[in-house]
TrEMBL record:
Domain of life of the source: Eukaryota
Protein's name according to its UniProt entry: Diphthamide synthesis protein-domain-containing protein
Highest classification ranks of the organism: Eukaryota, Fungi, Dikarya, Basidiomycota, Agaricomycotina
UniProt source species: Vararia minispora EC-137
C-alpha cells in the first residue's frame, strides 16, 4: 500500500496532513507583556539595523512554530520604522527553515532578510541576513557546574576545552562562558569560544579583510566569529537540546568527547558515545552508493554560498568516474517526489549541513552527502572517521583527492569486478561516457533503424527498455481514422445535453 501511494497519490492527504512543528523550537512563553515580547524578539535591535542599513524592502522569515507571532512582530517593527520602509512576511520556505530563504526574498525585491528562529548559520552570497534566535531560559550556574563535573569525571583532564551552544542560548552564552572560565582556571584549563554572529553580510567589503591571523578591528564583535586555535580532539562543552545541530557536531568532531547540558531537563551527559553508531550507519549508506551507477544530484539549497561550484564539481567527479548523473531540483524532499526517478540508483543531496543528513529508511534509494560520495567513488575506499559538511572545505579537499584519483585511473583494470558488501556478490559496474560524451551532462539524439528517435548513452532510456510495461503501443497507419462527432457543450457541473 505504501509503494502504491508513493508512485500515485491522489493529493487528498495534503488537505488533511497535520503541520509538524518543532516542540523544542524558539517560541516564546505565553502571557508576555508587550515590553517582554519586544525584548524576546529584539524588536529595537532589528529596527535599528534595518534603518542604519538603509534597507527599503526587508523580508521577515518565520518557521512554522513562530507564525502566530509574525503579525505582532510586523506591527511592532512598522511602528519603529520610517513610513517608506516595507516589510514582507515569508512563511513557507523553499527548502529548510534553518536557512535564509534568499529565493523567496528576491521575489519581493528585498534588500535584506530578518531570519527568526533556529538557524544553521550557513554562509549566503546574495543579501545580508539579520538573525533573531530567541531567548530560551537557562540556569547559568547549574550549567557550568554540571559541565565541569562531567569533564572531571571523564578521566584525564585536557589543557583546553571548546564551549559551544544552541543558538537559542546566545543571550546567556557570555555568562555561562564566564562561569566556566572561573571554575576551570583553578585547574589550568583554557576555554575557547567562537561567538555566533547576529548578522551575516556577504555584500560587505569588510568581509574580505578577515584573515586566518586576525579580524578587522572596525568590525563589531557580535557580527563576526572569534577565531579559536582548538584541535579536533579538544573536548567540547555543549549547551542545548538534542537536535540536528548536535548530530552534525558529533559527526564532524568524532575524535572529540562532547559533554552536553540540557537546560530544559537540567541534566548533563557524555554524548560522544553515540558517534560510532552514527558513523556506522553512514558507512552503510556509502557502501550502497558504491554499488550505484546512476546518480541524482539533488539541489537542496539555492542560498548557501558555493553551492553552484559544488554541484559543478560533483558532476565532473561523476563523469570522471564514468557514472551517469542527473541534476534535480525538487524543493523539500519526500519519498513520493524521489520515487518518480526510478532509474536513479543513488541520490546526492547538496544542502546546508543540518539538512544534508537524511535518514533514507522511507525512501526507495539511498541519499548520501557530497563527502560520502567522494569516499564511495574511491578505487580503494578509506575512511578515518573524519566527516566534512562545509561546502568550501569540501571543494578544497576534494580537489586534492581528485588529482590523486586521476593518477590511479590509468592503473585500473576497467573490466575488474568489484565486490559488493551489500549483496555479497561481485558486480561489473556500468561505464558511461566512454566514447567521449560527458556522462554528467547531456546526451545525443540519434535515429534508430526503425526511424524512431532514441537517446544515446542514456541511463533513463536503458531503464525504460528493461521495464515490462513501456506504455501504449503505437499503431501509426494501422487503424482507420474515426469519424468526428459533436461532443457535449457547457461546463462540467451541467452539460447542455445528455449525449
Amino acid at each position: 500500500m505504501a509503494e502504491a501511494s508513493a508512485f500515485s497519490a491522489s493529493g487528498e492527504d495534503v488537505t488533511h496532513r497535520p503541520v509538524e512543528v518543532d516542540e523544542a523550537g524558539l517560541a516564546p512563553p505565553r502571557g508576555l507583556s508587550p515590553s517582554e515580547f519586544d525584548e524576546f524578539y529584539d524588536i529595537d535591535r532589528i529596527a535599528h539595523e534595518v534603518s542604519s542599513g538603509g534597507y527599503k524592502r526587508t523580508a521577515l522569515q518565520f518557521p512554522d512554530e513562530l507564525l502566530p507571532d509574525s503579525v505582532p512582530i510586523y506591527r511592532a517593527l512598522k511602528r519603529r520604522l520610517e513610513t517608506d520602509r516595507e516589510l514582507y512576511v515569508l512563511a513557507d520556505t523553499s527548502y529548510g527553515s534553518c536557512c535564509a530563504d534568499e529565493v523567496a526574498a528576491q521575489h519581493v525585491d528585498a534588500e535584506a532578510i530578518v531570519h527568526y528562529g533556529h538557524a544553521c548559520m550557513s554562509k549566503t552570497y546574495r543579501m545580508p541576513v539579520l538573525y533573531v534566535f530567541g531567548k530560551k531560559p537557562a540556569d547559568v550556574q547549574d550549567a557550568a557546574e554540571q559541565l565541569v563535573w562531567s569533564l572531571k569525571s571523564s578521566g584525564d583532564l585536557p589543557k583546553r576545552v571548546v564551549f559551544r551552544h544552541y543558538v537559542a542560548y546566545t543571550h546567556t552564552a557570555e555568562s555561562i562562558l564566564g562561569a566556566l572560565r572561573r571554575m576551570l582556571s583553578t585547574i589550568d584549563i583554557e576555554v575557547l569560544y567562537e561567538a555566533i554572529p547576529h548578522c551575516l553580510d556577504p555584500t560587505s567589503s569588510k568581509l574580505s579583510l578577515l584573515t586566518s591571523n586576525g579580524l578587522d578591528p572596525q568590525l563589531r564583535p557580535e557580527h563576526v566569529p572569534i577565531p579559536s586555535q582548538s584541535n579536533e580532539s579538544d573536548p567540547i562543552l555543549y549547551v542545548g537540546p538534542e537536535n540536528l545541530g548536535l548530530t552534525n557536531l558529533l559527526l564532524t568532531h568524532s575524535s572529540a568527547p562532547i559533554h552536553r547540558y540540557d537546560p530544559a531537563s537540567r541534566t548533563c551527559q557524555l554524548e560522544s558515545t553515540r558517534t560510532n553508531k552514527l558513523l556506522m550507519r553512514r558507512y552503510a549508506v556509502v557502501q550502497r552508493a558504491r554499488d550505484a551507477d546512476v546518480f541524482g544530484i539533488l539541489v537542496g539549497t539555492l542560498g548557501v554560498a558555493s553551492y553552484l561550484p559544488l554541484i559543478k564539481h560533483l558532476r565532473q567527479t561523476l563523469a570522471r568516474a564514468h557514472k551517469k548523473s542527473y541534476t534535480i531540483a525538487v524543493g523539500k524532499l519526500n519519498p513520493a517526489k524521489l520515487a518518480n526517478f526510478a532509474e536513479v540508483e543513488c541520490f546526492v543531496l547538496v544542502a546546508c549541513p543540518e539538512n544534508s543528513l537524511i535518514d533514507a529508511k522511507d525512501f526507495y534509494r539511498p541519499i548520501v552527502t557530497p563527502f560520502e560520495l567522494q569516499i564511495a567513488l574511491q578505487f580503494e575506499p578509506t575512511w578515518n572517521g573524519k566527516y566534512v559538511l562545509d561546502f568550501e572545505r569540501l571543494l578544497f579537499e576534494n580537489a586534492a583527492l581528485s588529482s590523486s584519483e586521476d593518477h590511479m585511473e590509468g592503473k585500473r583494470d576497467v573490466d575488474e569486478p568489484a565486490f559488493s558488501l551489500i549483496t555479497g556478490k561481485y558486480r561489473h559496474a556500468k561505464r558511461y561516457g566512454i566514447e567521449g560524451t560527458d556522462a554528467g551532462v547531456g546526451n545525443g539524439l540519434v535515429r534508430s533503424e526503425a526511424g524512431a528517435l532514441v537517446m544515446k548513452n542514456s541511463a533513463a532510456a536503458e531503464f525504460f527498455q528493461s521495464r515490462t510495461y513501456k506504455g501504449l503501443d503505437v499503431r501509426a497507419g494501422m487503424d482507420a481514422p474515426s469519424v468526428l462527432e459533436q461532443g457535449r457543450s457547457g461546463i462540467a457541473r451541467g452539460y447542455t445535453d445528455d449525449h
